């Protein structure tokens, strides 16, 4: 039994309750890029502030690789994706699960996708690498948000692989390709590219560059 609490078991923990057999297409997507999220739950030994910081970080990782524009909703009733917590069967089982956005929603307000995070896991609710025998909450959140925006499980080596791996802490090439199919490229990247070009062309006009960045 000692092995059951060894690190290798943590590596092999199943990330979520979304079935591996589920296959989604690019039609599984929110029709509008502004996706509101909120929190309606708490995890033991995790402060509300840390919970929010981790979730915000996970949303930010997705919006940095595809066109979604996540927005915090102070009224959870208006959220399109809602974080909740529940006992999902004890430590090292299912860590979390999530609704997957279906095909053909008329608008984002037509659905509230519920995510559930397990109240019994030894969560590491920080943006740093998790210590031994703790589960990185932001990594699991980032994975689950992939489902919420329409992705199913994909090949190993991606964030959306079925198993938890704390080393894969953000969307990988396969995840990004799936997200871009649904939402296009990130807005910010386009802005950054322009800023870089501008910087190159007008390197001597430092103050102007700052002005342009502020306008954007
Ligand atoms: Zn999953």
Notes on the structure:
The protein has 216 residues and is of the alpha/beta class. It folds into two domains: 2-183, Collagenase (Catalytic Domain) (3-Layer(aba) Sandwich); 187-216, no CATH class. It has helices spanning 7-12, 48-63, 137-148, 173-183, 187-201, 206-215, and strands spanning 34-39, 69-72, 81-86, 96-98, 113-118, 123-124, 135-136. Strand 1 (34-39), helix 2 (48-63) and strand 2 form a beta-alpha-beta unit. Helix 2 crosses helix 3. The termini are far apart. The model is unreliable at 1-12 and 200-216 (pLDDT under 50). The site of zinc ion has 6 residues, from helix 3.
Quick recap of the structure?
The protein is an alpha/beta fold and 216 residues long. It is built from 6 helices and 7 strands; from the N terminus they run αβαββββββαααα.
Query: What is the architecture of the largest domain at the second tier of CATH?
Result: 3-Layer(aba) Sandwich
What is the tally of helical segments? 6
- Beta content comes to 5-15%
CATH class of the largest domain: Alpha Beta
Low-confidence stretches: 1-12, 200-216
Secondary structure layout:
Elements: H1 7-12, E1 34-39, H2 48-63, E2 69-72, E3 81-86, E4 96-98, E5 113-118, E6 123-124, E7 135-136, H3 137-148, H4 173-183, H5 187-201, H6 206-215
Parallel strand pairs: 1-2, 1-3, 3-5, 6-7
Antiparallel strand pairs: 4-5
The structure holds zinc ion.
Zinc ion binds near residues 15, 16 and 147.
Give short descriptive properties of this protein.
6 helices, 7 strands, alpha/beta, single chain, disordered C terminus, binds zinc ion, two-stranded parallel sheet, five-stranded mixed sheet, disordered N terminus, 216 residues, Collagenase (Catalytic Domain), 2 domains, globular
